[in-house]
Design a protein that fits this description.
By secondary structure, the protein is α+β, with helices and mostly antiparallel strands. The protein folds into two domains: 79 residues, Winged helix-like DNA-binding domain superfamily/Winged helix DNA-binding domain (Arc Repressor Mutant, subunit A, Orthogonal Bundle), CATH 1.10.10; 52 residues, 2-Layer Sandwich (Dna Ligase, domain 1), CATH 3.30.1490.190. Helices cover 42% and strands 18% of the residues. Strands 1-3-2 form a three-stranded antiparallel sheet. It has a three-stranded mixed sheet with strand order 5-4-6, with no helix packed on it. A hairpin with a 2-residue loop joins strand 2 and strand 3. It starts with 13 loop residues before the first helix and ends with a helix. The N terminus is likely disordered.
């Protein structure tokens, strides 16, 4: 079975290169919907739902194809699935385990990614205390963003 690698939009980042290599080494064809989803996700600052991905691709590929692509990418640990207010959202999973967490405004829905090295150390220590060999974790903070807090302040 020959491998086809089609690069859509010329996107090449360490993550896209890793994703394409992993897809090919896993026996998946790297073109079509998967390639479109990989290219789009690589350009995003944070996670997107399948519906958001579908809309940003101008509906050039079907929603079912987007879901199948995300399922494959998740199974291969190339994307992380994040639950945002009951909606599954997806973002690239760094090959080295690099990731960020999220803060969500309960008033306007604003979603802000953040990183905190001290928080990562605390999570690792908590895993050790519990006797867990942690593979992954995610954290979502729920609250009111600065703009909404300013509007609602007494």
């Amino acid at each position: 079975m020959g491998t086809v690698l089609t690069i859509i939009s010329g996107v090449s980042t360490p993550w896209t290169d890793h994703a394409r290599e992993r897809l090919v080494s896993s026996g998946h064809r790297a073109g079509g919907a998967r390639e479109r989803v990989v290219a789009l996700l690589s350009e995003q600052r944070c996670c997107l739902s399948a519906q958001d991905i579908h809309a940003r691709l101008d509906r050039e590929i079907g929603l079912a194809s987007v879901y199948r692509a995300l399922d494959t990418l998740t199974r291969l640990q190339l994307v992380s699935r994040v639950d945002v207010e009951g909606t599954a959202c997806y973002e690239p999973a760094g090959p080295g385990g690099d990731h960020h967490h999220h803060a969500i405004c309960g008033d306007c829905g604003r979603l802000d990614p953040f990183e905190d090295p001290e928080l990562e150390r605390l999570i690792d220590r908590a895993g050790e205390r519990l006797g867990y060999a942690l593979r992954a974790h995610d954290l979502v903070l729920h609250g009111r963003c600065p703009e909404c807090a300013r509007v609602h302040s007494p």
